[in-house]
Amino acid sequence: MPIEIHIKSAQWAKIDLDAIAEAAGQATLGLLGLDSDPVSLAILATDDAEIAKLNAEFRKKPVPTNVLSWPVKDLAASVAGGQPALPQADVFGEIELGDIAISFETCAREADTAGKPMSDHVTHLIVHGVLHLLGYDHIRDPDATLMQAREVEILGRLGIDDPYWDRDGA
């Protein structure tokens, strides 16, 4: 699975983003029964300042966020909670999913607050971003339920705990 990673913040050298992205991408595509060979995507590994600019430009929210995604094609289901369409290969047999941006500082803060390893949280956010590229979303409740279930299943296959399970019972 070709993943083009653009490192814009030196902080990302603290973790093996290449290995994390590859594992997250392979697991996500594998769960959906997609062959990862012809699938490609790009990841911008950045910081809070740059992701806040992107968030302002594309979502009109001038604040940092953990991950953003830009799918090449809208694969979302028209019915709430419906399964998104599978991506189709182009005339060359390739499937370009789109782009993801991820911020180191926000990821690190969230991982620290949750008391989990940074690598696990980044894996979750890349899975989340790839699912967005594949037409999953969390705006409508039934879609959120489906997307969250997919995330939990993919992360479980990678040996990562359910990020939505509240260990404190709150």
UniProtKB/TrEMBL annotation:
Keyword Magnesium part of the UniProt annotation: no
SUPFAM superfamilies referenced in this protein's UniProt entry, alphabetically: Metalloproteases ('zincins'), catalytic domain
Subcellular location(s) of the protein: Cytoplasm
Binding-site residues, Zn(2+): H128, H132, H138
InterPro entries: MetalPrtase_cat_dom_sf_prd, YbeY, YbeY_CS
Cofactor binding: number and manner: Binds 1 zinc ion.
EC number from the UniProt entry: 3.1.-.-
Pfam families: YbeY
PANTHER family assigned: ENDORIBONUCLEASE YBEY, CHLOROPLASTIC
Protein name, entry field: Endoribonuclease YbeY
